[in-house]
Protein: carbamoyl-phosphate synthase (glutamine-hydrolyzing)
Amino acid sequence: MFRGVSIGADGLSVGEVVFNTSMTGYQEILTDPSYSQQIVTLTYPHIGNTGTNKEDEESSAIHAQGLVIRDLPLIASNFRNEQSLSDYLKSQNIVGIADIDTRKLTRLLREKGAQNGCIVAGDNLDEALALAKAKEFPGLKGMDLAKEVTTQETYQWKQVRGHLRVAFLKRKTTASCHITLLPTTSVQNATSYVCLLTAAAA
Structure:
């Protein structure tokens, strides 16, 4: 059992505990649909020092079940910063915890594999309940996560980024091709081409 400081929403979150060794990209990790039903432990010691912004999101919401870090800097400093990591987690009702020995936790995960876990934050901490919830978690084997993270309805992709913006806008009504993308995580990368893009449910 690890004890730390809450950096996100109050509540209880259960999932498979995994680790990621990236030095940057914590917002991309949190919003990556592949982390659905997982509590992500980040091994780099200082997480949150550049804040968060809409441009770095991999999807429209945080898919990770929770976040575990060593240290949350007091100040988020970046010219693109729109919201602190703590406020970002709270805004999406995601439980997060800091002041954790992430090296010790990562060694445990590396030696024993991904483990069931539970993060509890708030005034009413019930360690026995947290342990019971972690034990009850069925794990990811056999779980159809694609249905949980996919778009609920088909839509046409209209957000364009990059140096081809002008060319794309000029030709968007006379598209030279029509591509339906599966999975939807590929949508943003495909806007480099002059195409009509449609994202559909998996």
